[in-house]
Amino acid sequence: MDLSSLKPSKGARKNRKRVGRGPGSGHGKTSCRGHKGQNSRSGGKTPVGFEGGQMPLKRRLPKRGFTNIFKKQYALIKVEDLCRFDRDTVVDPETLIESGLVKKIYDGIKLLGNGEIDRPIVLKVHKCTRAANAKIIAAGGKVEGI
Q: If you count Cβ atoms within 10 Å of the first and of the last residue's Cβ in the chain, which end, N or C, has fewer?
C-alpha cells in the first residue's frame, strides 16, 4: 500500500448540486427554488432573528441598565499571592507579569486584602485597599503608588 492508492471510502464524497443547468439535469428552470414566493426571488431571505412577523425575542425582552464606557478595569491581585516573592523584593507591574500573577495591566493593578503575608516586600501598584496596605506594613514592607 502506498499514498497513491489511498482514496476516500464509498459515500464519503458527494458531488455538489449543480442547479440551473437545463431541464435534463433535474435541477433546471426554477433551480430548486419552486415557483413564486419570497425565497424564489434573488435576495429573498429573512434576516437573522426574524420570526415570521411576530415581535422578535430581542425586541420583546426588557432593556435594563447601561454600560459605562468610562469605567476603569483593574488587574486584581491578592495579598496571599505575594508570598511567592522573596524577602525585600521590589514588586512592580513587570515583575507581576513575568511571575504570571497578572496577564495584562489594563488601566492599572489593584491590590486586594485577601489572605496573609509573612515577609516584607516593596510593592508598586496603582491602587491598594486599606486592609491590604495594613497587612503589607504589618509584615514590614511598604506600598508605593504609581
A: N
Fold topology of 75-145: Ribosomal Protein L15; Chain: K; domain 2 (3.100.10)
What pLDDT is recorded for position 71?
A: 95
Number of residues that this document lists for the chain = 146
Q: Give domain limits for the chain.
A: 75-145
pTM: 0.58
Q: How far apart are CA 137 and CA 38, in angstroms?
A: 73
What is the average pLDDT across 57-86?
A: 94
- What's the pLDDT at 74? 96
Grouping H, G, I as helix, E, B as strand and the rest as coil, residue 68 is coil
For residue range 1-13, list pLDDT tens digits in order.
789 999 999 999 9
Long-range CB pairs of 72-75, under 8 A, 24+ apart, other chains included: 72/106, 72/107, 72/108, 73/106, 73/107, 74/106, 74/107, 74/108, 74/109, 74/110, 74/126, 74/127, 75/102, 75/103, 75/104, 75/105, 75/106, 75/108, 75/109, 75/110
**pLDDT (0 to 100) of residue 146:** 87
